[in-house]
Design goal:
The structure is a homodimer of 190-residue chains. Chain A contains nine helices and eight strands. In chain A, 46% of the residues lie in helices and 23% in strands. Chain A binds a DNA duplex (30 and 30 nucleotides) through helix 9.
Chain lengths: 190, 190
DNA sequence: CGCGCGATTGAGTAATTTCAAATCTAGTGG
DNA sequence: CCACTAGATTTGAAATTACTCAATCGCGCG
């Protein structure tokens, strides 16, 4: 299972076995069952996670308790409440599992230490962060330019696998429309 | 003027004079007049820029030529068409100057080289990229959760200086509402 | 069989857009 | 200094899009 993790690293950098073992030692493993929370509002956010398997939804609840989905995280994705993780503050978001999920977690202290000691890993995280930035820019563009139907279609094209695994109401929340509106669209999904 | 650049670096890393000179040698200087384009759709995007002074708007035009603002870039900000810069592809966006603007540019090749040679700089760019990611997440959240008035108010609180320097119609485009709607809001701006 | 969750449908309402016109403002040339 | 113009902002009214609330449907599972 952890193979996935090493492969993820080796898409961007190359590692000897002993280097990998060293990197690995900075991470802890965690398993969660469906419906368990990985992060809850108010928690102290100690970890950033890499998803080995499973699926998580990250969201905020506002005053009237309506849900806004910040991201889904499935195999190969990184996830945390970055706002809180970065600043060492309490979480403003929730993250819970839509499926049984296996994670590898690293604290901010360990990440900084690892990056300081291994230039390669600093490089890895820089590249990942750049890619993440670009992905968010694309999403912003989609939110700005498209109506409900186009946003839905683009989401479908970008992450078709989500549609098998996630209730439609959550996808609606991800693209910022009501479940009813989404249900009324001419769907690409059938 | 270039002081700003060194200060920007030294907010995150420390540099000796000779280290700074070395870093500096990877960048070129460029000056643009108000209304000049820094990037146009279809250009080959060679540079990522740091803004020494001035103000740029980055946007896309869709089929019916309506404008969507991806970001503003003022003093201290980094800017490019990252999608294109990263992948070495043609620009899908435009960037033009709202004021006379001074930039420092670095090619992707030079950036990779610099990061490879100076761990410190790789660190600098990782940290900046993380902060950028968080800023975009915040913007996505604002787009998802807020109505026109709240989005406008939040923008005002986050970047009050923009309101002196940027036409309201562009701010409207940034938050994804029509200029008329923005004009009808109870403004915090007076 | 019946419960519960997810998805759908209908009807009325609210927010925002669009199109059009009027107003305001700052900068320019005479 | 004033008139003029281009750009920016405001206002009105109609049209559209999406939301909300409420009810119904469908299906898998105990």
């Amino acid at each position: 299972m952890e193979l996935v993790f090493r492969q993820q690293l080796e898409k961007i950098i190359s590692l000897t076995d002993s280097e990998y073992e060293y990197v690995r030692s900075f991470f802890i493993s965690r398993k969660y069952k469906k419906h368990q929370f990985v992060i809850q509002q108010g928690d102290h956010v100690n970890y950033e996670y890499f998803v080995l398997s499973g699926l998580i939804k990250c969201y905020v609840l506002d005053d009237d308790s309506s849900m806004h989905i910040l991201q889904f995280a499935m195999e190969d994705w990184w996830v945390s409440d970055y706002m809180a993780y970065q600043a060492g503050m309490a979480a403003t978001t929730f993250a819970d599992c839509l499926e049984d999920t296996e994670l590898m977690g690293i604290t901010k202290e360990n990440k900084d230490k690892l990056c300081g000691e291994m230039h390669k890993m600093e490089h890895f995280f820089r590249v990942k962060s750049n890619l993440g930035y670009i992905a968010l820019q694309r999403r912003i563009l989609s939110l700005l330019s498209n109506n409900a139907e186009e946003k839905y279609r683009q989401l479908f094209e970008l992450y078709p696998s989500l549609f098998q695994r996630v209730p439609k109401a959550l996808l609606a929340s991800y693209i910022g429309v009501s479940r009813e509106t989404l249900s009324r669209l001419k769907l690409p999904g059938r």
